[in-house]
Design goal:
This protein is an all-beta fold and about 70 residues long. It has a single domain (about 1-65), classed as SH3 type barrels (Roll), CATH 2.30.30. The chain contains no helices and 8 strands. The chain has strands at about 1-5, 15, 20, 25-30, 35-40, 45-50, 55-60, 65. A 4-stranded antiparallel beta sheet has the order 1-5-6-7, with no helix packed on it. It has a two-stranded antiparallel ribbon with strand order 2-8. Strands 3-4 form a two-stranded antiparallel ribbon.
């Protein structure tokens, strides 16, 4: 995995466009996670997001709307 352009979205909050499951197995939808990192992995651009309780998950940019 390679980190790319870490300043572009890192530190911004986003809104989920669909329900997602975090690494702990909990369904998330109404929360607005923080973008922690952007990566390219196997040709896919992904965002690592962190929820208020500290759990994280990877999402595709098409699964969120980034707040300005």
């Amino acid at each position: 995995m390679e980190t790319i352009n870490p300043e572009s979205l890192v530190g911004r909050h986003c809104r989920l466009l669909r329900a997602v499951r975090d690494n702990e197995g909990r369904n998330r939808f109404t929360e607005q996670p923080l973008i922690v990192r952007e990566i390219d992995n196997l040709g896919r651009h992904m965002l690592l997001v962190q929820f208020d309780d500290g759990s994280t998950t990877f999402l595709f940019p098409t699964e969120v709307i980034v707040h300005n």
